[in-house]
Every structure is written in structure tokens, then in C-alpha cells.
Amino acid sequence: MIKENLDDILDYKKDLTYDEAYQCMNDLIIGSCDDIIVSAFLTGLRMKGETVDEISGFTQSMINHALKIEYETNEYMVDTCGTGGDTFKTFNVSTVSSIIASAAGAKISKHGNRSVSSKFGGADALEALGVNIEMNPKQVAYSLEHTNFAFIFAPKYHMATKNVMKVRKQLGTRTVFNLMGPFSCPGKLNARMTGIYDPDLIETMAQVSIKLGTKRGMIVHGFDDKGKPAMDEISNIGKTKVAFIDHGNIDIRYISPEDFGLEYANPEDIRAPDSHEEHINIIKNILDNKIETSKDKARMDLCLINSASILYVVNKVNTLKEGVELSRQVIESGQAKQQLQKIIEYSHITINN
């Protein structure tokens, strides 16, 4: 299917249908094309701009070829994976926020990988904290049932994508795979809190989310204090562009720290530290409710904002401000710190597939 469409993509900027995109991804997964064809295909898509149907078809094929996780819940289950590729590097906010939100009752199936564009990826952080990041599907289901949280290590579940790994590395530029990553979780999700590296893609990715089964969600991009695109998470140094998804409806608007009842922070206070040890200390200090400096407060507020949004998405609170209050309660009570220990413990329980 790739060879049949390649000339039209390159010469006429042809958009693929959903079915054509699905079949093209099948070609990539089974390795039916030479690397030079794959490279031309991915580059051609990038140059013309990927459509909703293309991203949706590619991603659904990737999900269907992944190792399956047979776990369902009557509640909302959310993924908190972001695209990476942003320009303003923070500490590992989504990981801390996910721990806090899961302690407050959110079911979180966190799909992720080791660091690609950040200094310390979600997998890196959780592994350093003592979490087993390579759980099999039954372990994931058991952890979700008993802790509300499980990490799904993307390379373990998307083994078929190894056929394009070499080309992606050699290209050294963004491709459609960067957009697909956060949307290709093999768990049975119906909600998402997803950060995007480009604010212009917010509406596109909200439409993709709905096609892939999202009922409630927030697709976000945070700006810096000068109004420039900055981070694939909700910002507390500037405004954030958000596509709110609610059962087929998309509402795009800008939110700010005031919507959470919080203040703007100094950008230097939330930047990523240089060492992995410093990253881990930041995470532990937040879960310990240690607030002694302006940096401590800014980092705490950033996690509260993002945790609050997760809780709002899964309907545990009615407003973003309520989400901050509930997140703060689970930190101050020690529940968030206990939650991390519980996540670590359950991730190491042996359950064979």
C-alpha cells in the first residue's frame, strides 16, 4: 500500500484515507518495504502535513498489532503520556502528577518510554524510584485493579515497530510516530490527558482522540512567560491551550494558573535539573510535601495543576480548582507518598501470562 501511494503523496500531497493509512502502517509493521521507501514515505507525510484520518488509521493499526492488556473498568481510565519534543524542559511532571491523581482515585494506565527529548523520561523516573517498568499484561491489570496505576513500557508492547526504529533514528526528525506514541496505548482507555509539542496540532489530535475512543480528555500545550510555545503539559509560567473533549464535543480555549486558584511561577524555578539524582529528589520532595523555597512551591504548583486536570478528566472533581484541593489533600495526608510505595510493591508481584 505504501508503494502504491508514495508518488501521489510526494507529487500531489495526496491525503490518505483512514483505510489506506491503516494498510500502510501494516506494511511498516510487517517490514514489507525497504528503508529508503519508508524514509521517503515518512518524510512525504511530514512535508504535506498528516491528517486526522491518517494519524487515526496509523495509530489504530499500531494498537491492533500491540500486545493486548485485557483490563476493563466501569470508570474512566486515562493515559497521561505526552509527545515530548517541547522546547522548555521541566522535571518529570506527568509522572508525579499521575502518582498524585491515582492516590486520589483516578485510574491511570500510563504508557511511555525512556527519555527521547527530555532529560529524564517517565520510564527513567519510575525505574529510578524502584518501579518495575516491564510488567506483562496480567501484571499491568493486577496493578491497575489494586493501585489505580500501572506503567506500560511502550517497547515491550509495540515490538512490531522495531522495523522502523532504524529509519527514525537516521532521519533524526519528527515523523508521524511522534504524534502516534501517546495515542497508541494498548490498554482499554476511554479518557486521556495528553500534552502535545505543537499548539497548532491541538484540535487535530483532539479529533484523533475521539476517533480512537476517547470520551473525556484534555489535549494541551503550555506556553512560557513570553507567550511562546513551550511545553507538552499544562503550564504555570504562562497560558495553556486546551482542547476539552466531552463525549464527541471539542471545546478549545486557553486556561491559566488562576483557573486553578494558583499563581504564575518563575520559569527558572521549574526547569529540569541536570542530574537524574536531582530529578528524583524533586519527585520525593513533592510527595513529602516539602515546600521550603520558591522553587519548591513552583514545582508543587505545577504538579497540582496537572494532577487536578487528570482528576477533572476522569470526573473525580467538578472543577479544576477542586482538583487542586483534592490533590493537595492526598499529598498533605501522606496518601501520595504511600501510593508510590504501593505502586512499587505491586509492580514487582509475579504474575505469569
Topology:
Elements: H1 2-12, H2 18-30, H3 35-48, H4 52-64, E1 77-79, H5 93-103, E2 107-112, H6 122-129, H7 137-147, E3 149-153, H8 154-157, H9 162-171, H10 176-180, E4 191-195, H11 202-211, E5 216-223, E6 229-231, E7 240-246, E8 249-255, H12 276-287, H13 294-313, H14 320-332, H15 335-347
Parallel strand pairs: 1-2, 1-4, 2-3, 4-5
Antiparallel strand pairs: 5-6, 5-7, 7-8
Helix pairs in contact: 1-3, 2-4, 3-9, 4-11, 5-13, 5-15, 7-15, 13-14
Which structural traits does this protein have?
15 helices; 8-stranded mixed β-sheet; alpha/beta; 353 residues; single chain
SSE ordering: HHHHEHEHHEHHHEHEEEEHHHH
End-to-end Cα distance, whole Å, is: 35 Å
Characterize the main sheet: 8 strands, mixed
Kindly state the percentage of residues in helix: 40-55%
Going by helix content, strand content and strand pairing, the class is alpha/beta
Approximate strand percentage: 5-15%
Instruction: Tell me, rounded to a whole number, the average pLDDT.
Output: 94
Catalogue the unreliable spans: none
